[in-house]
């Protein structure tokens, strides 16, 4: 007799538990945020064909300033895909695979783009070849501001 009385109560409790979970799941944000690369980025590592060149070169003055208005400025002269300043945009604001850069002198240059978190800090990783497809440079940057 007690089982017949407890069965509806258990069914009601189960329903309330499941209905409560649905509410929380509907509030979960499942959309990838738009990537913001604005700021001044300094080199923390430079490799060529996988060989680390960081200790061989003076990288302290080399940086890229990506501004919110879609312009960039490269500081110092190192082997980089563009020199000076120009415009930039990501291939896709949420899921970018390349950074499209244009210095205004011959068209857009696509640079392979990654945006990893390394040791708790966001990095910007740009990879490209300079004329010779056998040499691939990878610059890893960290934001300064």
Short description:
Pfam families: DUF5004. InterPro entries: DUF5004. The chain has about 140 residues and is of the alpha+beta class.
Structure description:
This protein has 145 residues and is α+β, with helices and mostly antiparallel strands. The radius of gyration is 25 Å and the shape is elongated. Helix content is 17%, strand content 39%. It has an eight-stranded antiparallel β-barrel.
Our estimate of the beta-strand percent is 35-45%
SS-based structural class?
alpha+beta
The CATH topology name reads Lipocalin
> What's the number of helices?
1
Radius of gyration (CA) equals 25 Å
Distance between the termini: 71 Å
Number of DSSP strand runs: 10
What do the pLDDT scores average to?
86
**What is the total domain count?**
1
Overall outline? elongated
- Low-pLDDT parts are none
What is the element string, with H for helices and E for strands? HEEEEEEEEEE
The CATH architecture name reads Beta Barrel
Profile the largest sheet: 8 strands, antiparallel, barrel
Name the CATH class. Answer: Mainly Beta
User: Spatial order of the strands in the main sheet?
Assistant: 1-3-4-5-6-7-9-10
What level of helicity do the residues show?
A: 10-25%
InterPro entries: DUF5004
Keywords: Signal
Organism: Sphingobacterium suaedae
Protein name: DUF5004 domain-containing protein
């Amino acid at each position: 007799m007690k089982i017949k009385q407890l069965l509806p109560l258990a069914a009601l409790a189960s329903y309330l538990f499941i209905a409560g979970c649905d509410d929380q799941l509907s509030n979960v944000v499942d959309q990838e945020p738009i990537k913001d690369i604005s700021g001044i980025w300094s080199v923390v590592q430079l490799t060529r064909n996988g060989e680390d060149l960081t200790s061989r070169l003076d990288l302290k003055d080399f940086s890229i300033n990506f501004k919110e208005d879609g312009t960039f400025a490269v500081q110092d002269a190192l082997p980089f895909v563009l020199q000076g300043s120009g415009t930039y945009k990501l291939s896709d604001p949420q899921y970018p695979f390349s950074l499209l850069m244009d210095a205004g002198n011959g068209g857009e240059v696509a640079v392979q783009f990654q945006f990893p978190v390394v040791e708790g800090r966001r990095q910007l990783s740009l990879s490209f070849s300079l004329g010779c497809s056998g040499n691939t440079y990878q610059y890893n940057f960290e934001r300064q501001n």
